[in-house]
Fold this protein.
Amino acid sequence: MEAIKTQAASGSADSKLHFLDYWRILRLRKAIILTVFLLVVGTVAVVTYYLTPLYQSTVGMKVERDTPDVTPFTGSMGPQAAFDPYFFNTEFEVLKSHKILDGVIKRLALDKKYAARYRVSDMSIPQAYDILYRSLEVKQRRATTIIEISAYDQDNVLAQDIANMVATVYQEDRDEDRNSRLLRGLTTLSNQLSVLEQQVTVARTNVDHLRKSLKIPEMGSENSPLISLNTQTMAKLEQTRTDLRTQGTTLDALMVKVHGKQGNELRHFLASARPTPELQTLVGNYNMAEQRKTQLAADLGPEHPEVKRVTGLIAKINDQLDQEVGGIVAALEAQVDINKKAILELERLYAEAIDKTSEEYSLFGPYISAKRDLDARLRVHEAMQLGLNQEIINGQISKKSSVQVIDRALTGLAPVRPNKPLFIAAGAIFGMLLGIGLAFFIEYIDTSVKTIDDVEQALGSPVMGVIPQNVGALINEGADSPHAEAYRVLRTNILFSRKDPNFRTMTVVSGGAGEGKSTTIFNLATVFAQQGGRVLIVDSDLRRPSLHKILNVSNAVGLTNYLLRQAKLEEVVQTTPQAGLDFLPSGKLPSSSVGILNSVQMKEFIEEVKSRYDFVFFDSPPIMGVSDASILVSEVEMAVLVVQYRKYPQQMTLRAKQMVEKIGGPGRLLGVVLNNINISQDSYYYYYSGYYYDYYSKSEESKPESEKKSRFGRKNGAATEAKSAEVKPKY
C-alpha cells in the first residue's frame, strides 16, 4: 500500500496540468457554473430594480491653510507652508464630523425631513447624523487643493441643498476658528505684556537703587554688564603677562642655541639672529681683511710689510668681534633675567587684582543679579512686543477666508445610483467567477476517478478499456454497434495481458454497487462469442442477480441448483440469441446455503465448465463488504476491476484493488476498466471511444441506401428477435 501511495505521489508530481484540463473541468461543471451565474445575475437584477434611486450634487471648495498674504516687517509675499500629507485627510474628517454636520442638520431641519421620510414620530440629531454621514462623499481633486463634497439623496433638490450647506458651514467654521484663535492670541499676548511691563519697571527700580546704594562705577550703556577698574586692570595685566611669557620663551630658545655655538659659528649666528650695526660692520671688515690677506699671500711672503699690516688688522678685528659677541650674549642673559622678574611681578599684581575683583563682586553681587534679571525681562518684553505687533498686522492683512467655494452644487437631473448596467455587469462577472470557483472547488474535493491518469497513478494498474455512457446489452444492439468496438478493444487487451494462454475463467469486480460490472461482463462475453469462441456467462452474484433481466428469462433454476445437486449442468445452462454464448442464471439462494460459492462443488463446477468452453465469465457482487466476490477472485484465473467514472472515491477503488491482489496475488488482476464515460461532455476521452462513432457513421454514409436499409433491417430484426425469442435450455 505504501508503494502504491509513493507511486501515486510521484506520478502526481510528474504530471502537469494543461489548459485543456481546466477547459474539461469547465465543460463538465457547466451546469453548476450556469446555475450560479444565473442566480447571482438574477439576484443582482432584482435587488438593483428595488433599490431607491439617488441623485448627486457636488460642490467644489478651494481649501488652504490660514496664512497672511504678506509677511509682516518684510513686505514680501507670505511664506509657502510645507507640504503636509495629513492636511487634507484631516479636513475630510472635519467635514464629516458632528461639528459641521450637526449644523447642517439644524439649518436644513434634516431630522424632521428624515423622520417624515422614514415614517417615524421623532428622530434625534445623532440618528439624523448617521443618515447624513452615509450620504456624503468627500474627496480631493487630483493634484489640486480643491475638495469636492458630493451629497446623495433621493430628492435632487435636497441633495443640492445639503452639498451647498456643508460647504457654507465649513467655511464659516474655518473663519470663526481663525478669528477666535487670533483674538485669543492677541488677548493673551496683551495680558502677558502688561504683566511683564510691570515686572520690568520693578526690576529697573531695584537696579537703580542698588547702583546708588553700592556706588557702583558702571560704564557702558544700560544693557552693558558691570565693568570696573579692577576688571580693566586685570585684562591689561593678563595681556602683558601673556606677551612676556611669549617673549621669555623665545629668549630661552635663543640662549640655548647661543650656548651651543663658539667662534666664527657663534658670530655668524648672532649676526643673523640678533644683528647689531657694530657686529655687522666688524664681520664685514673681517671678511674683507681675510680676502686681502689671501690675495697678498699669492704674491708676497709673510715678512712683507703689507702682509704684516693686514695680519695685524685681522687680529685687531678679532679682538673687537670677541668683545662685541660677549656684549651681545651678556645683554641677552640680562634680558632673560629681566623678563623673568617682570613675569613674577605681573603675576603678583594679577593675584592682587583678582582679590580686589572678588571683593568687588562680593559687594556688587545683588546688583549684578538684579541687572541680569532686568536684562532678561527686557529681552522677553521686546520679543513679546514684536509678536503682538506681528499678530495685529497678520489679522489686518490676512485673507478674508482660506476656504473659497469655486463650484456651487447644482440640481441633479438623473439618478446616479444605482448604476444598473454597472451593477448587473459586476454581478455577471462575480457570478461567473463564483460559478467557476465553485466548479473548481467541487472538482478539488471530488476524489473520484476522473481520468485514465487518475487510475494509473492512484492504483498503479493499466486501463484496459474505456466504456462510453449509456451502453446497453450488445446482444440487442448487434455486432455493428459503435459501443461494441470499446469491448473489442477490452477483449484484445485481456487476451494480450493474460499470463497463460490456457487461462479461461474470469470475473469482473467493483468496489461499490452500480459501477456497471454486470453490463461489462455480459457485453464482454458477447464480444468473445461474436469472435467465434464458445463462451459461458455465469450469474454468480447470488445476492442480487441481474443478468437474467438483460436476457428477460426466469431465474428460478440456475447455479445454486447445480451446486446443491438438485439439477445437472445440462438442465441449468441456457442458450442465447448470440451464437456461441450460453448463460447460467444464479437460481434461488436458500438461506442455509449462503457460503455455497466457497465449496468443493464450486471448484468442481469451474473445472467442468473450463473443459467445455473456451471462456467462462463469472458475474460477482461488489467486493467491498460481500465475501462472495473475494471467493470468486480466488477461484478464477483472471480478474478485471470496473471503476465507474466520477462515482466513488479513489480510496475505495484502491482498497478494492488491494483486496483483489491480496486474495489472488498481484498477477491475477489484469487491469482496470473505466466505465460510464460521457464522451459528449468530456473531450478527454474522445480519442479513446468517440473515434468509433465517427468512423462507423461515416462508413454508413458512404454505403448505398439499399445496403444501409438491409443492414439496419437485419440489425433491427436481430434486436426484435432477441427481445421476443425465448431463451431455451441448451441440452
Remarks:
- DSSP finds 25 helices and twelve strands in the chain.
- The first strand starts at residue 55 and ends at 63.
